[in-house]
Amino acid sequence: MPGNKHKHTDTKSHLFRQLSWDELDPVYLRQLILLAKEEDFEGSGLVALPKVVGDVSTNSLNLDESLEGEASIVAHSELVVAGLPLVPIVLNAYGEGCVFKPKVEEGSLVAENEILATLSGPANTILQAERVLLNFLQHLSGIATLTSNFVTALGNSQTRLLDTRKTTPGFRVLEKYAVARGGAWNHRMGLFHWVLLKDNHLAVSGVNGGHALTELICRARENSPDLAIEVEVDNLEQIDPVLEAGTDIILFDNFSVTDLKEAVKIVGKRAIKEASGGISFEMLPQMADLGLDFISLGALIHQSTWMDIGLDWKLI
User: Fold this and answer.
1) Regarding the domain delimited by 8-17+154-302, which CATH topology (the fold level of the hierarchy) does it fall under?
2) pLDDT tens per residue, range 268-300
3) Positions marked catalytic
4) Region of poorest pLDDT, from 1-10, 77-86, 232-241
5) Confidence at 314, pLDDT banded by 50, 70, 90
6) Which residues pair with 232 in a beta bridge?
7) Strand (E) positions, the chain?
8) Please, what sign has the CA dihedral across residues 15, 20, 23, 25?
């Protein structure tokens, strides 16, 4: 039977959220870091592995293992910092004895030339870990910084920005975490999260609209009674059949601003309203007061640029 057993306010608070650091799996993080280390030390991923492994540059200097060093992680441009909690995990993967001291809050906006953190400990360890820890920081801070700019473009709107599953394979959790540090919210973590019937699902099922669309959604509800249902629509005519099925979330795909206004009016408070597809940074101010609950953008991640962050070295 058509009809929605879910409360939309509960769905909104449960499904769309901001990942915190405590929710990230330490085992996953260590594995990711070890993979990066193996690429550097052993040529992981290559068919022909190197005859000599390790950091040949540092090893060629024959540095005393007891040599201590101190370095500062410095922002070379204004940015929103993300990834600082990864730094001690990276250092531990390369050796023991390093001390990490953050100087700014994770997710904060920092000025050009501001010190983000200091490192001290065995010089060999810091030299070997430098590139990998900077790669993580530069990438994640790039996502957080771009996301913050997009959030600012919405002004004081009640509409929230969401990311998508357009993430770097293997890096999804970290990239979505960085989005959250930039002030936006997280959409589905994966295909497991909730039911999202997109245009290709409808095409494969031979359904485009009308009563057949209502029945398709009801069947999905029967098969997944404990999961929220989201349905992507690409025209105004599909909205009523989707509402008839009691859908929790309606995704307006590639709608014009004019059609979005009409779509929001049709739906009212009967479902959560999300817009996606073809949305640019410049469009956000004119979408801020349409009454949408969410705007989802793959650009928060795939259009981000690595930030300029450096490691300034000082021998003790």
Assistant:
1) TIM Barrel (3.20.20)
2) 999 999 999 999 999 999 999 999 999 999 999
3) 131, 166, 198, 232, 253
4) 1-10
5) confident
6) 251
7) 68-75, 79-80, 99-102, 109-110, 115-122, 160-162, 195-197, 229-233, 249-253, 272-276, 294-296, 309-315
8) positive
Tokens (6 digits) for 86:
């990864």
Instruction: Indicate the SS3 state at residue 38.
Output: helix
Cα torsion through 221, 203, 293, 264, rounded to 10: -110
Contacts of 192 (CB under 8 A, 6+ apart): none
Rounded CA gap, 312 and 61, in Å?
19
Length of the chain: 316
Measured distance CA(88)–CA(132) in Å, rounded: 12
Report residue 113 as tokens.
């030339």
pLDDT at residue number 7: 42
3-17, 83-97, 168-182, 189-203: range with lowest mean pLDDT? 3-17
For 21-151+305-315, CATH number out of 3.30.70.20, 3.20.20.140, 3.40.50.150, 3.90.1170.20 equals: 3.90.1170.20
Burial class of 271 by CB neighbour count within 10 A (0 to 12, 13 to 18, 19+): buried
CA 132, CA 33: separation in Å to the nearest integer?
A: 8
**CATH 3.20.20.70 boundaries in the chain:** 8-17+154-302
Question: Where do the CATH 3.90.1170.20 domains begin and end in the chain?
Answer: 21-151+305-315
Whole-angstrom distance, CA of residue 108 vs CA of residue 97: 28
pLDDT above 70: residue 302: yes
Non-local (6+) Cβ contacts of 154 within 8 A are 161, 284, 285, 287, 288, 295
Q: What is the pLDDT of residues 165-192, one digit of tens each?
A: 999 999 999 999 999 999 999 999 999 9
pTM for the structure as a whole: 0.92
